[in-house]
Amino acid sequence: MKTHTVLGARILKGGSSPYLDMGMRIALGHHECFDGSAYPNGLKGRKIPLEARITQLCDCYDALRSKRPYRPAFEHKETLGILMKGDGRTSPEHFDPEVLLTFERSASGFEEIFENFQDEPDV
Question: Is 95 exposed, middle or buried (0-12, 13-18, 19+ CB in 10 A)?
């Protein structure tokens, strides 16, 4: 499971498009935590590309809101609490403080987008 970051980056590396370059940085860095506690490279703080720091928070929001085989989906309010306060697995220290603050300020937009697209078929 943890190799998907490196494999995804490898697939996107060397493209001639700035979008592929950004996709490569996102693929490689979206599981890095701001406090340096994650993978694949244990990057910390601003050494993690901004686009990966943003995607990390969005990915966590989506993961918490989505049903999993081992747990039901969390509602928006509960998800917001987990991201802002932590739950023993997720901690606010995992996220860029500025990205987290921006998320908090725009959280109602995240809820609206999630609700509007949750019934869309998987691509």
Answer: buried
